[in-house]
Write a structure and sequence with these properties.
Its main location: membrane. It is built from 12 helices and 12 strands. The chain is of the alpha/beta class and 350 residues long. The structure holds adenosine-5'-triphosphate (ATP). The site of adenosine-5'-triphosphate has 17 residues, from strand 1, strand 2 and helix 1.
């Protein structure tokens, strides 16, 4: 992505992450590069098994014990994260710099402790604030995420699923982290709650200078809430760029097909299609396009090399670079007959 942005908060430079398994080294993330600037929201999209959570876990210092960043650098505000020990990470990064909103709030809430007690614990580890000041700040955050301030002393089970998710957002915001990693933050919620939580996530931008990586399999959610998008397939980022441009000018077959597979509330009559097959598990080095076996437009070359991420318009000097890894990127719109199949009109994305 862009090298021209003002301040880099998160940077992946040619990152490969592998898990050691009985079958060999499973490559969950393959040569991924991107940059996220201050106050930017990036949507990381892909089907199950594409490597999204692995990337998130690498950022929050929580890779499974058999997982390792085998090459490349992950930088947070210039500081390399990939070799930090858990102690260093807890001390310097967790909560106060990078916070995590998991898929299911109960994963990070302690069911046996009042929410306020959990906030005080985090506050005491990372700040010098007295307890009443910590609680004051937490009440204010409850207000921001739309929960009654009086309920900070509730136990997690006393909240509905949507309220729990908002409580975890309040906890995530508590130490004013610069970066929030939100893993399917609304998946466990009903539609009304999803809307509310998304509204609050959107509102965070106005409240503070926060960047976010939002992980989801729902491409339309990203078009509604994020500035940038990166599409992953079997560990490879196949297309990345500003949401508006990727929405209107997708250049990778996976993006095009994924876009057709999800309902878009602006085009309720659009017929949905299905992408055949599943993202393959990749063992060892991935030196081919991982989507080739599922791609209706694949040619021999696609199986023989990993296409490099190339800019869509080489001349254009854009704020957000639009990069695509497909040997047929220049002809794909024609091949996919996009003019007849894609949604038209309106001002989509952000
Ligand atoms: N601890 C592990 N050991 C071995 N393989 C793993 C491990 N964790 C994940 N994987 C594999 O790594 C690949 C990427 O998984 P990951 O969970 O990152 O995908 P994902 O896109 O987040 O999927 P989901 O949307 O289902 O959470 C998959 O093939 C998965 O089976």
């Amino acid at each position: 992505m862009s090298k021209q942005m003002s301040e880099s908060v998160l940077e992946f430079e040619d990152v490969t992450i592998q898990y050691s398994t009985a079958k060999g080294a499973l490559t969950a993330v393959s040569n991924v590069s991107f940059e996220l600037g201050l106050n930017e929201y990036l949507g990381l999209v892909g089907e199950s098994g594409c490597g999204k959570s692995t990337m998130a876990k690498a950022i929050i210092g929580a890779l499974d014990s058999n997982g390792r960043v085998t090459s490349g650098k992950i930088r947070y505000k210039g500081k390399e994260l990939q070799d930090m020990t858990e102690e260093e990470y807890n001390e310097e990064i967790r909560w106060k710099e990078i916070a995590w909103i998991p898929q299911n709030a109960m994963e990070s809430l302690d069911p046996l402790q009042k929410i306020s007690t959990q906030a005080v614990k985090i506050g005491k580890v990372h700040t010098d604030f007295p307890e009443d000041e910590i609680l004051d700040r937490f009440r204010h955050l409850f207000d921001i995420v739309g929960l009654p301030e009086s309920r900070i002393t509730d136990y997690p089970h006393e909240f509905s699923g949507g309220m729990q998710q908002r409580a975890i957002i309040a906890l995530a915001l508590f130490l004013r982290p610069s970066l929030i990693i939100a893993d399917e933050p609304t998946t466990a919620l009903d539609v009304i709650m999803q809307d509310q939580v998304l509204k609050y996530l959107d509102g965070i931008k106005e409240e503070s200078e926060t960047s976010m990586v939002m992980i989801t399999h729902d491409i339309s959610l990203v078009f509604e809430t994020c500035d940038k998008i990166a599409l992953m397939h079997s560990g490879q980022v196949v297309e990345s760029g500003g949401v508006r441009e990727v929405y209107y000018e997708p250049r990778h077959p996976y993006t095009i097909l994924l876009q057709r597979a999800f309902p878009d509330h602006r085009y309720p009559d659009q017929e949905l299609s299905k992408i055949e097959g599943h993202p393959p598990e990749t063992i060892g080095e991935v030196d081919y396009c991982s989507f080739a076996d599922r791609c209706p437009w694949a040619i021999e070359e696609c199986h023989a090399q990993e296409p490099p991420a190339s800019p869509v318009n080489k001349q254009q000097n854009k704020d957000i670079a639009h990069n695509v890894s497909c040997v047929r990127m220049d002809e794909i719109r024609e091949l996919a007959d996009l003019e007849s199949a894609a949604p038209r009109g309106g001002s989509g994305g952000k």
